[in-house]
Model the fold of this input.
Amino acid sequence: MRVAVLSFGSNWWARSESQLTRFARYNSSGIQCASKVRRHWIVAGVVRFNGVSNFRSWPPQRLLGSSFRCSELSFAYGGNRLLFVEKIPDSVPADFHLLTITSDLFGSLDLYSRTCRSASSVVFAASQLRARQEIMLLLEPGGWFQTSSGLWQLRQAESSRRPEVVLVRPRPLTSAHAL
Done:
């Protein structure tokens, strides 16, 4: 499976930093609680980068916009798992885009609704604490999701090769929100 990274979750951790053969970095959704990011999972999911992979970029912001050959999505140890195997040329079309949305920027997503997103997209990981959400989606090219703010779609940007998430149809204001 080929995955292009648009954004990561806010929760990062590592294992065995002193041994390259055992070294791995992990990423998932999380919610900022005081000075820490905590996993308040309602959908558990972990992205893994092995130390012996060829990405070698840190901090993770350097990986944004990059494409990777990944394992197939699996379910193990109570959650979704995705291994990023190796970085590949960006010219290879992606099967999915990894996108993390937050309720602050995109509005809330009703994860229990079957119509909140396009059929082939995957809620990979989701954290929620009260009204705050951070959700990692695997979104196919042209895919969409519906939040409390409106309908969003992943579109190819005209000015660059990198796709962007666009608010296609804002949710109308109700009389309670009107001025």
